[in-house]
Every structure is written in structure tokens, then in C-alpha cells.
Amino acid sequence: MKAPLIAIARHRLSVDGDGVTTLVAFHGCPLRCQYCLNRQCWEPEGIWRWTTPEELVEELMKDNLYFLATGGGVCFGGGEPLLYSDFIAAFSQLCPPEWHIYLESSLHVDQQQLEAVIPYVHHYYIDVKDLQPDIYHRYTTGDIAPLLHNLSLLADRKLQEHITIRLPLIINYNTDADRQRSQQQLEAMGYTHFDRFDYVVSKKI
User: Quick check: 139 and 100 in contact, CB under 8 A?
Assistant: First the structure.
């Protein structure tokens, strides 16, 4: 089993998990967000390297002392990491049990891909964008149905305390009132942890 990566970023402190984390970013994404920061994940030439779960565990063992000392671990991002849920599950069974597994995802995947990693993920960072279907589609070009379904699945599993919802203010796409409506909808599902921020759009976009 091999998966394509666009990057491995080490020694990240309290950015995408507790303590010191290493970000493993996968190639591939089902969405085409207008202000995407990792467009190389869409393009065939964007692949940096291919790796197996065994090779990745061996490579990240050099970070083991940092993880153990700070309560950190590995964050899988991308792109969309849940496109490689079997890889993440295999890695999680091979790595030291003290490593925390974090996941940054849009949840725009089939339910089975999410369910494959639920036993292993310590904390999720869900990039919701906006829960108004028209805004979501205009910004991502995707259908919001998979996101809503998977948010409901996680809520049904009572995992809200292990989830941070990212709610951006997106220039030219939503308003603060739209964002507030999205948060209220999520709060009704039991979600309580939100990361509200404003997208800063570069002049190149």
C-alpha cells in the first residue's frame, strides 16, 4: 500500500494538535476551493513522493522524543487525507500508541472512508467553509451532502469534544451573518469548538 504525498512538515507547535506535531500532507482532493492554498494537491506533477505506512512510521520515529515529551503526534492533511483512510488506519496500527493522530479534513468523502479512521483519531479539524449549500457549492464546486452526512455521523458517535470546526469568513463568498448561521446549525448538532478566522486573499488569486 502506497500513498502520494505533497509534503512532510516537522516541528509544528500547537498548530494542528497538542504539543509538537508533524504534518503529513497527501496529494489529491475532491474539491476545487477558490482560494486553495495547496493547489499542487490537484496536479499530477504536485506529487512529491510515494510512501508506505511502514516507511512513514520509520521516518517519523526521528520525531518520537518530541511527540512523547509534548503529547504531540502526527497530523494528516492535504489535499484530502480521507482519500487514503486505509493508509491512515494501517499507519495508526503500526506507530507507537503514545502518538496522537490528528486529522484535517473537509469530510467530503464517503462514510466508509471516515469510519475507517474513527478508532484512531484523537482530534479532528474539520474545514466546513460554510453550511449554506449555495455558498458551499460556489466556493468549493462540490455538493454539501457528504459533509452534512459525515458531520451527523460524528455527532451520532458523540465525538463533538474531539472536533474543532473551522469557520472562515470568505471574501466575496459569505458574510459574518452567514458564518453565524453555520455556527448555530453546528451548535444544534452538539458542536462546541470553533475556529473562526478571515481568509486573506493574495493578489495572485
Answer: no
